Amino acid sequence: MTQYLPPNLLALFAARDPLPHLPPADKLPHEKRRVPYAGVAAFLDGFEDPKDTPPPTRVETRDERKERKRKERQEQHAYKLEQDLALWDPASNGNSTMDPFKTLFVARINYDTSESKLRREFENYGPVKKICMINDRNSGKPRGYAFIEYEHERDMHSEYTALPALSLSPLPALPHLPLALPLPLSL
User: Fold this and answer.
1) Can you list the positions of beta strands (E) in 2-135?
2) Which of 58, 87, 109, 125 could be bridged to 159 by S-S, CB 3.0 to 4.6 A?
3) CA angle (78 as vertex; 72, 84 as ends), nearest 5
4) Is the dihedral of CA 78, 82, 84, 88 positive or negative?
5) Which of 1-5, 56-60, 164-168 has the highest mean pLDDT?
6) What is the band of 69 on the pLDDT scale with cuts at 50, 70, 90?
7) Helix/strand/coil for 1
8) Does the 100-176 domain belong in CATH 1.10.730.10?
9) What is the pTM of this model?
10) Helix (H, G, I), strand (E, B), or coil: what is residue 8?
């Protein structure tokens, strides 16, 4: 049957070369005389004094490194916030309103609405001191909301209670009190 196999497969079944004959060793391992085991007492003077041994260096694990970096970032962020808060002066910001109790927040304003149109609409309820329409920093386009500061707080409250939604755009503009203010009980 093997005569029908191709030569490359017949080569797999060929016998290997015989092992070379080596002369026997002088003595067998169990006949050799060995040096008896001795302790390390002869080498103790080569060791350093335990008092001079430096403390072992501890390598930080991956989780410890992540935690340390997270704490460093948190401390840097807290420090930056503290510095920014120390340097922040709300009186120097020309766009901010001076009294939050007289300020009304108006949202969902049409992007084509101008400041004069807002002033004309909101002056029906009292004298408006300042209108601050918020624009995008990069493009300069309006963001769709504004802060309106009245001369008197009662004017702001009368407008807020009298008109739930204005018709400045297809979507009604919604006037709201700032969230930091306490709402009157009559609302």
Assistant:
1) 103-107, 128-135
2) 125
3) 135
4) positive
5) 56-60
6) very high
7) coil
8) no
9) 0.46
10) helix
Joined together, the tokens standing for residue 24 give: 């026997």
The answer on pLDDT for 21 being more than 60 is yes
d(CA 12, CA 137): 80
Structure tokens at 89: 């002066």
Which spans in 57-132 are helix H? 62-87, 115-122
Of 3 and 185, the one with more pLDDT: 3
Q: Which of 173, 176, 156, 155 is nearest to 165 (CA)?
A: 173
DSSP letter at 16 equals P
Q: Which two three-digit tokens encode residue 184?
A: 């009157």
Q: 96 with 132: CB under 8 angstroms?
A: yes
For residues 81-99, give the mean pLDDT.
80
Say which amino acid occupies 88.
Answer: W
**Which residue type, as a one-letter code, is found at position 115?**
E
**110-147 burial string, b = 16+ CB within 10 Å, else e?**
eeebeeeebeebbeebbebbbbbbeeeeeeeebebbbb
- Cα 43 from Cα 23, distance rounded (Å): 39
Confidence grade of residue 166 (pLDDT, cut at 50, 70, 90) = low
First to last CA, the chain: 105
For the chain, the structural domain boundaries read 100-176
- Rounded to whole angstroms, the Cα distance separating 116 from 179 reads 26
Contact yes or no for 158/132 (Cβ under 8 A) = no
